[in-house]
Amino acid sequence: MADLSIAHVRKRFGEFEALKDVSLHVADGEFVAVLGPSGCGKTTLLRTIAGFEAIDSGTITIGSHPVSSAKVHVAPEHRNIGIVFQSYALWPHMSVAENVGYGLKVARVPDAERTRRVRDALALVGLTGLETRPPAMLSGGQRQRVALARCLVTSPTLVLLDEPLANLDVHLRASMEDEFADFHKRTGTTMFYITHDQAEAMALADRIVVMDHGVVMQIATPEELFRRPATEMVAQFIGQGLIVPANVRSVGGGRCMVQVLGADIAARCSSEQRTGDGFRLCVRPRELQFSACGDGFACRVTRVIYQGGYYRVEVMPEADPNLRFVIHRADDQPIENGDLVNVVITDGWIIPHSVTATSSAIEYAAA
Amino acid sequence: MAWMKSKSLTLSLRDRAVRTEISVLTVLLVFVTAVAVAPLSRLLFEGIAPSGVFDWGRIQRIFNQASVWRAAVNTLIMATGSAALATLIGALLAAAVAVTDIRTKASLVFCVILPLMIPPQVATLAWINLFGSSSTLLSMLGLAAEAGTRHPLYSLEGIIIVLGLHNAPLVFLAVRASLRALPSDLVEAARSEGASPLRAFLSIVLPLARSGLISGAALAFVSAAGNFAVPAMLGIPGRVPTLITLIYQRLSDYGQEAFADVALLSLSLGAIAVSGLLFQSWLLRRRDIRITSLTATPLRFSLGPWRRPTEIACWVFALGVLVLPLLALLSTALVSGYGQALTTETATLKNFTNALFHHTMIRGAFMTSAWLAAATAVILTIVGIPLAYFIVWRPNSLVRVASAVLEVGYALPGTLVALAAILLLIKPIPIIQVSLYGTPWIILLAYLTNRSVLSLRPIVSGFMQLDRSLEEAARVVGAGFFRRLRDIIIPLVAPAAGAGAILVFLTVLTEIQVSVLLVTSSTRTIGASVYFLEESGATTLAAAVGVLIVVAVFCLMLFVSSFKDRLPKGILPWAE
Lengths: 367, 576
Ligand SMILES: Nc1ncnc2c1ncn2[C@@H]1O[C@H](COP(=O)(O)OP(=O)(O)OP(=O)(O)O)[C@@H](O)[C@H]1O
Ligand SMILES: [Mg+2]
Known about the structure:
- The structure holds two protein chains of two kinds.
- By secondary structure, chain A is of the alpha+beta class.
- Helix content of chain A is 26%, strand content 36%.
- Chain A has a six-stranded mixed β-sheet with strand order 6-7-8-3-9-10, with helices on both faces. In chain A, strands 13-12-11-14-20 form a five-stranded antiparallel β-sheet.
- In chain A, strand 16 and strand 17 form a beta hairpin.
- In chain A, helix 2 crosses helix 3 (111-124).
- The longest helix of chain A is centred in the middle third of the chain and has 18 residues, at 170-187.
- By secondary structure, chain B is mostly helical.
- Chain A binds chain B through residues 50, 52-54, 70-83, 85-87, 89-93, 102-103, 106-107, 150-151, 154, 156, and chain B through 2-3, 7-8, 11-12, 14-18, 467, 469-470, 472-480, 483, 487-488, 491-492.
- The structure holds adenosine-5'-triphosphate (ATP) and magnesium ion.
């Protein structure tokens, strides 16, 4: 087992820069998920770690071995990693046992030991008894488990998984998620797990890396990511955060008073937060409420969608027609398009690295 | 490819895995250089600057000869005319098979494609036997022309007809492929806008089949321009010179002295062939119509009352073109003297027993062809698998150039490739001082130049249907290049590679275009023997050898078809 360090990695395909100065560290035995919209460079990152793609600059270190840099490139076959591919990549001309045992055969592990280790690996993923089946005669979940057993049997220092559950149906996904988590607990393998499903990442990972356009946006635990998003992109990508312009009036002890759409509210902020104008506030749907007593700000209902048990209500603040808020409302309180309502923000999070905020904060500090 | 950049190349050279791959790639590139780059550039050099300097006056002198002019014009007429005929026939048959509801398609397709697999010298011999004044078949029916009249096929028209029929399957295949990709909803959309079936066919199907028509026609043109057997067997007795027969005759009359002139003639023949391909890509430029449709239902026009007549027409044509000449060939093979009527008294198996057992030249030629075909198929498969690996999964500019050169070697007429091989090997190879000229090895070299694409293409398509991660999964568990090749890649591309090897074997076994310039009295191929037997007047024996070749080809095709379910789709040209 080993840790994984990625420092300032850049990767271009021709003119297109797929990874821009990516740095991150995965501790020994940690389960890290990489999350991001399609095309943001997740697979590319995984392939550079695996060694399928050379990098243009930066370094990748597995354990104490530098495996990729502008000068060094260790071939994938010499990195002692395991990969679970999205397509499973089971060799159709080999049985389950041959698939799982192939890596040991390549490593010239003696027959008796190989048989034992293959048996153990198959037992670990619950496939005992299917040794002689060809992959074509397995279900999707079983194939996924064979792929997992195959990648673990060689005891790789690091396991990379590229959207391993993307091809499975919803129910199977949930049970495989549990198995991955369980498996990680039992073996303590370092895992680097790529997905574009937030719920999956939150359920499995110790920490989550959020990427966008080849850049790492934030690396944090699931709670931190949800409660304290570092950028607007993270706020919007995770948990449907809504972004509102906000002026910070006073700060102290991780809380602040902000002015939003003419109303004053209390919100959370980082301990380095300064007062100033032009900040952005991240608000979750559950941090918004309809107000009966006329405080908060006035909004017009623009859309109502019934979602089973509650309405998803979209409203437009009268003070800023470009904004839209989403609020959930119990289904025993019907509401119609065009209704005028009052909305209060009960909590929120001031995004720390907002570009407009930095400049005004500097101005403020100078004054 | 990252390591093509010189910086990363030197850096990654330290890695054992990368070194292996570079060595393999180097071997492959050396192979391509030896079999394609070297002979073809030797020919180019000999044709343009035989004495080392470019001499415009010499080129003018050669092209000012009336015989050269006539041959070039005839070649153009022959190639264009037969391509037009092949396109007409091939497109109609393809439309019938691909977009109508006629029955018995599978066997119809087999019969339509079979002429493609029958070597042209055998087909021509069959046509000669069918229509000649000594036609055994026609004299049995009392229809033979009077003795002494000129053979109707010994003419430019005859050449065009035989070549057109021979190449029609090429167009058929190309048009069928483009029609097959047409989903039914495109036409349903047109019909729902009120277009009649005919209107829908003309306005939707035809434009979309355009690419198939054009590339099929171009293939037929190129194939006709480079065909040796038909213009030689019909044109030489009929006094219709073409470039290819001119090359052949000058070489056999003047030998080495004619090399420079003949090389230039070959280049102009090559230019005609290549111009056909260039014209095709010009016609197909930018009009790359991507068909976007989600339904996979193939298009079917219901012919209604016209179905039966269409079926009959297709079958009459297919059988007329296939069975009649073959019957003529068979009946000639069954009599002892050409021109005899086939009766219970004259019928004899003597020609067959002679061909099979008594004639040492024929037996030797058969053995030579068999091992040459096998060696070509095996070598091209061994080289083709790693080469296709690089072409599909590790493309870089060197690999692209290599595959383009191999394509050129395939597109150029076989006779031209043979001449290139002669020019390269006529002098002893430096250092080892061995001359391959006059040995089967020079034929092997020319086959490797001329046929590599035939084996490479199916392997490339096999790779394209493979999930790349199958190989990557083997990499990450530690398997090196050769290990992956042996355990993962070869088993997975084996069906495609096998199909390619069989195509190579089948076409090399009976071919004449390449070997006709390379055979000597001691080294003959079976394909060329048919021609030489016929030329020397042993028509009945030639017919018997021809029949045996057809039977052998037919059996091999059936044999391969028997495991077609295990082959990637679309690899066997004759399978529906
Ligand atoms: N071999 C390549 N050549 C050129 N561009 C590439 C190559 N591989 C990836 N890219 C580009 O790099 C970007 C990132 O691709 P990548 O596959 O890493 O995305 P991803 O985050 O895995 O997306 P998805 O969630 O859709 O799998 C994309 O814009 C893609 O088009
Ligand atoms: Mg991806």
